[in-house]
## 1
Amino acid sequence: MYKYDTYDQSIVDARVEEFRDQVARRMSGELSEDQFKPLRLMNGLYLQLHAYMLRVAIPYGTLDGRQMRMLAHIARKYDKGYGHFTTRQNIQYNWIELKDAGDILADLATVEMHAIQTSGNCIRNTTSDQYAGAAADEVADPRPWAELLRQWSTFHPEFSYLPRKFKVAIIASDDDRAAMRLHDIGLQLTKNEAGETGFKVFVGGGMGRTPMVAPLIREFLPAADYLSYLEACLRVYNRYGRRDNIYKARIKILVHEIGADEYRRQVEKEFLHVKTLGIDPPAEEFERINAFFQPPAWEEGLSDELALSDPDFKLWVDQNVFAHKQPGYAIATISLKPIGGIPGDASAEQIDLMADLAETYSFDELRVTHAQNIVLPHVRKADLHTIWQKLDAAGLAAANLDLISDIIACPGLDYCSLANARSIPVAQKISARFADREADLGELKLKISGCINACGHHHAGHIGILGVDRKGTENYQLLLGGSGAEDASLGRITGPGFDEDGIVDAIERTLDRYVATREPGERFLDTYRRVGFETFKEAIYG
Amino acid sequence: MVEGLRYRDDAAHEEPAVTLDAFLDQSNATAVRLESDEDARKLLPFLDRLALIEVAFPAFRDGRGYSAARILREAGYEGELRAAGDVLVDQIHYMRRCGFDAFAPDKPLDPKAVERALNRYSNVYQKAADGGAPAWKLRHG
C-alpha cells in the first residue's frame, strides 16, 4: 500500500487547516451558505435532508486495518455508529454536524486519509478493480497508476472548476470489475506488441440521465505520456464542455455532440502541445510509487485443498471467494448485503472486525468494491473457515456475491436531498422476496437508483430500477439488460412503472420467464440477450 | 478590504482593455479583455505587443479562464494577466498557479485572507504556470 511522505502529508494537513478556516467563516456568518456550498462540496460535505453528509475518500478502494479502524472511530464518535460504503469505493457518514467536520478531517489525516475532491465539479476519487494485485488475470497492478493520478488530480489548479464532476476508473484485466466504460475516462492497462506498458483510453462514458458507454479514444497510450494525455483530455473538456445546462455538462455530452473522432482530433492536437511542457513525472516517480504495491510476502508451497464439509461454509466459498494468483491463497468478499439489510451499511463494530481480519489474515489490506462490499484480497485458503466463522458471528457472512440480493442501491429518499423515491426499502423487499431462489437464479446484478442521477447504477444493472416521482407518489421503473462489465450495455425501460410492491412483483414475473426460457448455463443477462426484450415485456405486462 | 490585487513589479497598465473582436479587427491596442467563452489562442500571434490581458470570470464556477491563463503563459506571454469578475479568496491560489498575476474582484477581498490562502500550501503535486516545483520534482531532484 502507498504510504505518504512529508509532501503528501503536508498537503493533506494544509487542507485540514483550510477547511477548518472555511467552516469557521461559515459558522460565524462571514460566508453565506451560497458561498460556502462550493467550498464544502469540494471537500465531500453535503447538506442532506436531515443533516450534513461527509464522504471520505478511499483512493482506488484500498485501505489498511489502521485506516479501517479510523472509519469505525468516526462512525462511533461523530455519527450514529455506522457508515455507508458507496459505489465509488468511498464511505459516507449521514449524520454529521458541521462543527465536527474539521475534527473529522484532522482525525482522518492522522491515518493518511482525507475527503478531498469527493464532491464538486472536479476530478473525483479514482476507482479501480477491487482485486488489483491479487487477480490472476491482470496485466499488472493498476493501483500505482491510480495513485499517480490521485496526486496529479489533487488540487489541480486548472481543473477544479470543470463544467461538471469528473470520474476516472483504471483497470488492468479484460474482465472489467469496475464499470470502467461508464466513467468520464476509463483506462485499461495493457501491453503493446513490443511488450511496452500503456493504456487503452476510453472517454465519455457515464450514467445519469443520459447514460453512455465510453468510446475508445486512444488504442495505446504509452505510459510515459500518461499525465500529459489526461491533461489534454481534461483541457479540451474544460474549455468546450457545455456550461449552459447542468444536465448536459458532463464530458459524455461533449464527446457525443462533436463525435468521438472530433474529440480525439482535438485531444491529440492539445496533447502535442501539452507534451512539451514537462508535466509527466520521470520514470523514477512511478517506480517509487510502484514499490509500495509489491506483492506481500505470500508463503510458497501452500495447498489449494479446502475442507468443505460444512455446507454453509461451502455455500460462502462457492459464492464469495475468487481465485488468487498465488497458489494456496484466495480473494474473499465480505458481503455488506445481509438479506433484508441496507446495502453498503456497516456498523462500527463490523468495521472494526473487518480491520481485525485484514490485519490477521490478509496482509493488512482491505478493498471496497463499487458494488458496496468489502474484500480481503490475500487470505490463505487454510484460514478461510476461521474467517467465515468470525464473519458469520458478526452478521457478515451473506453468501450472495453477484446474486440478486447483492443489490447496489443509492441512499435514496431516506437520506438524499436529490432523490425522488426511496431505494433502501425496495432493496430490502427484493432481497427478502428472492433470497430463497437466488442460488438457482445465479449471477444477477440488480441496481436501484432513487432518482435519474443514477448513483445506484440502474442503467448498468442486469435488472435496474429507477425511482421517480409521479404526481407526488413514488413510482419505480424497471430496466432490463444493462451491464457494467466488459460486455458493457445500457438497460432498457420495460414500460410503465410500478409502486413499491408492484415493482417486486414485476421482477418476480421477469425471473419466472427467465427460469422458463433459459438454456443450461445461461445467466439472466445471457437469456435476455438471446430471447430479446419483447419476451420479457410480455411476461411483465401480459 | 481591497478592490484590486497585483503581483507584479512593473507599473500598472493604464490603457483600457478592448474586446477580443475589437482587438482582432483593427487595433494596435495593448490591452484586451477575454470573455470566458472566447478562445485565448486567437491572441497567440499578438502576445509580443500585449501588456494586459483581462480574463473574465462571470461566475466563480466557470473555470474556463484557468485554461485560458495557462495557454497564454505556456505560449510565453509575460504581460499582466488579470482575473476579473467573480473572483473569491478561495480561488486565488489556483489562479496564481495558472499564471494570473493581477485580480479585479467584483467584491473587495480581505488582503490578509488572501495572504493566508496563498501561503497555505507549501507543496503542490502538479507542474503548472507558476514555476512551483511539484512534489515529484522535489522527490527526485
## 2
Amino acid sequence: MLAALSVVALTASALWLAPARRASAQRAGVDTYAITNARVVTVSGPVIERGTVVVREGLIAAVGERVAAPPDARTIDGTGLTIYPGLIDASTTLGIPRPTPTPGATPGGGGGFAGLFGQSAPSAVSPNSTQLPGLQPEISAADLVRPGGNEIEAARNAGITAAQTAPRGNIFLGQSAFINLAGDTPQQMIVRSPVALYVGTTPIGGGQYPGSLMGVFSSVRQLLLDAQRYREANAVYERSPRGLRRPEQDKSLAALLPVLSRQMPVVMQADSERQIARALELAREFNFQLVIAGGTEAHKVAERLKAANVPVLLSLNFPRRTAAASPDSDPEPLRILRDRIEAPKTAGRLAAAGVRFAFQSGGMTQMNDFLANAARAVEGGLSPMDAVRALTIRPAEILGVAQQLGTIEVGKIANLTVTRGDLFAKDRRITHVFIDGRPVELRPAATATGGATGASGNWTLNVNLPGSGEQSEFTVTLNLQQQGENLTGSLQGPLGSGQIGSGSVTGDDIRFNVPVTLPGPATQTTDAIFTGTITGNQMRGSVQIVGRGPGTFTGTRPAPPAEGGRPPGAGGGGRTRPAATPTPTPTPPGGGTPPDGASNP
Amino acid sequence: MKRLFTHLISFALLCGLGGGATFGQARGGETLIRNATILTITRGRLENADLLVRNGKIAAIGPNLRAGTNARVIDATGKFILPGIIDAHSHSMMDGSVNECTQSVTSMTRVQDILNPTAINLYRELAGGVTSLLLLHGSCNAIGGQSSTVKIKYGRPVEEFIFPGAPPGIKFALGENPKRTNFNVPGLQRRYPATRMGVEEVIREAFTRARDYRAAWADYREQSRTNKNLIPPRRDITLEPLVEILEGKRYVHSHCYRADEILMLINLADEFGFKVRTFQHVLEGYKVATEIARHGAGASTFADFWGYKIEAYDAIPYNAAIMTRKGVVVSINSDSDERARRLNIDAAKMMKYGGLSEEEALKLITWNPAWQLGIQERVGSIEVGKDADFAIWNAHPLSVYARVDMTFIDGDVFFDREADLARRPQLEQERKTLEQAEANRPPARGEGATPPRPPSAIRRAYTHDDDVHYEEDNQR
C-alpha cells in the first residue's frame, strides 16, 4: 500500500516535472525535501494528523500518511509541527520600488501649479503615454517588481510565501502581478501577470486635474468612456479602413480593453460602506468585474457584494488606538470606538453571508500583526478553517492561481508555511517557510516595513510663518498615523485643532493637508499643506498656507517603540519615556521570537 | 479579559451598530398627528387640525381625522407643524473637498460621487427641522460640478437619500472665487481667469464648445442612418451637462455677489438661450431685483451675513425682502453645517428687516427653496398628496424659543427628541464599556502614546463654522 502510493505520487511528479528539469538543473544544491511526522493541513482535503510532505524541484511531489521520504531528500523531522499551504497576502506593494521624488517635474505640462508644493508624483511613469502619471493603466507591476528587500523578508518571516503586488500611485495605478516572495530575478518571482487593474482614489494634486475625490471619479469615468470608444473605433476601422481616418493608437486605452470585456478584474480600495457602494456603482456603470480591497465595513454591503459576485481582499490591518494628539483633546466619537471593536468581526460576517474573501496585510507596518489579527478574526467569529482558507486557497482562487497554489496537493507549487503550534494560537511560531520548493531563511530581525522610517508618532512641530503679524512662531502637536502610504492624524495647538484631510508618505517624504486657524483679529480657518522629509525622529519641511507666503517647520518625536515583542525597557537606548503601564498594546504573539531549529536544513 | 470582550460584543449588538439607525427603521404605515397648528405655507394657518400620513404621503388634513387601528397617533396639542425646511445651499453630505479647483470648468464632476450619508451634521440638521438639501460643488470655478438634491434620510443607505425626480443642477460661480482673488500665493502662476471679464469668457467659450459638441453628435446621428461605417464622436462628460443646460434639462445655480456680474450672467444666458434657476448668495441682488425677476431666476441669500471680503461689502439685511417685493422667488440658505440647524431664526429676521409677513418669512425656507430646486410639486408645503416631509415644533418656528420635537421624511421619523434623550444614558454606558476594550486603550508608551503637553499648546475654543466658513467651498 505504502509502496503503491509512493509510486503513484512519484510517477505523477515525474510526469509533471519533466519539462522543468533543465531550468532547475541550473540551480545548485538540494532540490528534494521531506517533512515527516507532521500535521498536514492540506486545505484541499481532510487534515492529516501525522503525515509527510515531499517537495521536489519546486513542486509538491507527494503528500500523505504513508508517504516515505525519498532517499535523496533532505528530511526534516516534523514531529510537533503543522504544515500549511504557503500563506498568501492578497494585496500588497511588495517589491515595487517607490518612485523617486522629482520636485516640480510633473510630466504632461499645462498645469501652472505643477510641482507647486514640491510634491512628488507617487506614481510610476509610462513613456509615450497619452495620460498623466497616476492615470496610466498600462503600468505593470511585473515591469517594476524587484526581488529582495526588507519588506519581502518581513513578509516571509510572518509566514507569507506569495502575494499579489500592485504598482503604487494615484488613480489608475496599473496592473498587478502575483509573485512568489523568493527568487533572484523578477522573472523567477512572477507566478501570474497581469492579474488585475488597480484603481485608487488619491487625487493627483499639485494643481493637476483631478485634485479632488469628485474629480477622481470623473477622470475614471471619462477614461473608461474613451476606452469604450477606442474599442468601437478600432472595430469599425478594422472592418473597413478605406475612407476612414485611422484611430490614434493609445496604450492607456488599450490597457483598459480587458477590463471592459471582463477578462481582467478591477481592484478598488474601499473600506467604508459608502466607498464600497461607490465602487459597486462604478462597476455596474461600466460592467467590469470588481474586487474590493480593504473592506472594513464590507459586511454592511454583504448582500450587494454577493449578488454581484464581488470578492473582498480583506485587510488585517485593523484600526488601532493611538493616543489623542493632546491630553485635553475631545473624546473620540463613539463610531470610531465601535469600529475598532467591530473590525475583527467583518471576516466572520462575510463568511456567514457567503461573500468570498481573502486576507491581505493592508499596508501594516508590523508584519507580526498579520497572523495575530487573523487570530482576532477567528476570535471575532470566523471558523479557523475558513481563516486558513482566506490565507491560502481563497486568494489563489480570486487571483486566478488556484491551479498552482493554495492547497497542499501533488503537482502544485511547493509553497509551504510550517508552524509549531496552531496557526492562530498565541504561542505559534513559524519554523519553516518553503517557496518554490526551497526553504527560505527566517530572520527575526527584519520586522518593520512601510516607509524606510514610519511617520507614525506624536510630533512636536515648530512652525515658522514669517510676515504673519505679531506672531510668527508656533509650537504645535502633530499626531501622525501611517498605514501603508496613507497618513492620517491631527494637529493641535495655537493653530487650532484639525484633522488631516489627505496625507501620504513616499519613502521618507511626507505630505499632508490640515486645516489651521490663524490667530489674529480676522480669525480664518484655511488649509495648510505641509511637505517635508523625515530623518529618524526629526522632520523638516515647508508649509504652504492658502493666501499666505510660504513658511517652514521642524519637528521631533520621542523615539519610536522597540520592535514588537521586546520586553519593556529592552530597547530604551536612554530615551525618557512616560512610565510604562502593563502591556498597553496587544502584543503580537510570536513577535520577534527566533524560529526554532535550523532554518536551512 | 476574554469574558469582558465577549460581554462587549453582545452589548454592542444590543445597542445597534449603525450610528443613527434607531430612528430611521420603521417604514411606511400610518401616522395621525392630532390637534396641531399646521403652517401649511400655501393654504394658510390651520388651528386644532389633524394631519394623517399614509404610505409616506400626506393623506388628509382637517379636524377630527380617523386613522386605521395600527396607526401611530401623536398628540400635538399646542405644537406646530411646519413643512420640512429646505436648504438651497449646503455641503453637509460631501466627503473630502467640495471643490475640484484645478480647472475653470469642472462640469464633469458630480457631487453624487462623494455623498457621505453618515455625516453627523445631517442628524443635527434634522434636529433643526431640515429635510432636504441642495448639495453644491464649491465656487472655485466659473462652471463647477453637478449638484445633488437629497432628502436627509439619516441612517439609511446612500441611494435612499437621492431626491427622486429632482431636476439635475450645476454650480456656476462669478467674481472673486473663480478668478481666485483671495487664493493666490505670491510668486506662483495664477489659474485663468483672473478677472470678471475672464470669468465671462470662460463660460462663453464652454457653451460655444457645448453647442459644437451637440452639433457634432446630431451630425453623426444623421449620417449614421445611411453610413454604418462611422466612428462616433468622443463622449465628453465635461460638455454633456452643458448641453443639458442648453436644452433646459439642468438647473444653473450660480454663486455671485455683485450686481454687475449678475447682469452679466443674465445677458450671457440670454445669448445662449438658457435660464439661470438661482443666484446663490446674491448679496447685491436688491440692486438688480427687477432684472432677476424678469429673467425668471430665484435668489438664495444669507439673512444678515456680509463683509467677509470686498465683493461682500455692499450688502444689506433688507436684501431678501426687497427681492421678494420685486417678485423674485427668494430663499434663505445656510452654506454652513452649523447655520443650517437654525434656518428658522434666519427666516424670522426677515420680518424685522423689510417687514415680510409671517407666511412670506416661512416661505423663504420652505416653498421658495422647493421651487428653486424644482421639487415644489413634492415638498415645501403641507398639502394632501405631497410627501410627508415635515417637523413638529414645540412653539411657533419663528420664535427663538422654538425647537423641533420630531422630524418626518416620507412619513418616517428621522429625528425624535424624546427618543434621542432617552438613548443618551445608554450611549454613555456604551462609551464607557467601549473605552475599556483593549483596542480602544491608547498605548502608554512608544508609538502613539500621549505626548507631553507642549508649553505653548493652549487649546483654542472650538470655532463654529459660521465664524470662519462664510462659504465653506472657499475654505476646503
